[in-house]
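Aim 2, interim progress. The first record below pairs a target sequence with its structure tokens.
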Amino acid sequence: MAMFWWSVAAFCFSLTLIIETTSWCLRARAEVTNQGLYNSRVNIYLYTARFFYLVFMVLMAWAVDRGATQHQILGVISAAAALGLIAHLIYVFVGSVARFADRRILAILVPEVTNRNDIPLRFQIGHALFGWSAFAAFFLMMGVTLPFVVASLFPESRMMISSLGQAVNAVGTVIVLFKVDSAMYQSMDTGRLSWLVGYFVAGRIAALAVVLSASLIAFFAFGLF
């Protein structure tokens, strides 16, 4: 039974990550004349990620309180990062999947708009936004997952560890607000979001790859001791 709930936790966190990424890809399909409409409706879609995020947090907290080992916690995090990375790679490199998913979601969110931009999504790294996106995503993911690993080692200090995790999360949030979102919203005003979004997505993929590599290394390292 525990394995089932850990699988649910991993799936929910990976779903949170792909929703956060694709929300900007959906915004990139807006015209200059309906950006406000797209933003308001896509925010509804983005907010659904909060539900899956909360499910992940509750299940992970439950696992730690029930005495899950750091090896088990790292297994869930590794599975979540792997699922998230696979979903991102399919979304980016299988164009038909991205087009189908975006059209279906937008048909629900903005049914009154029938003429939709069909933008090609490219994996791009030659821009400062790539680095900021990767940096922010890494801190946000570590701020969420690392406290559970440390709390499994020091359960008596889990409240303090949770607070430190929020501090790490805050670093990522500041980067998002001042470097990532700022550039993305400005590009909407100039009609360049469809070009810039590829750097944002690539940065998040890079961060996911780093988190997955680190969690797998730690997973096998703890498994040996």
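The second target in this work package is listed in the same format:
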Amino acid sequence: MANAHVKNLKIGDAIRVKRGLMTAISLVYAGMPNENVFSLVVSTTAGHMGMGYNLYFPASQRQLEVGGTSVSVDSVSPTSIQLALHRW
């Protein structure tokens, strides 16, 4: 596994997790709807088309996988999240 890429995101900030020739997958931090849950938007583009959807995770969850990328959640608050991306 390659080194981790650490990124701090505020609400509405995005980080690209996968990039292809004509495709991309990004994560956008969408905040915490309550103290026990945080939300990430997965945004996918293919050519000139795109889509996005919200995923909701327990605030205690520290590992997830999106687009072939393992994501570690180092810290989460209502206004920001710190992620570490592990690409292989």
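The first strand starts at residue 4 and ends at 10. This observation will shape the mutagenesis plan for the next reporting period.
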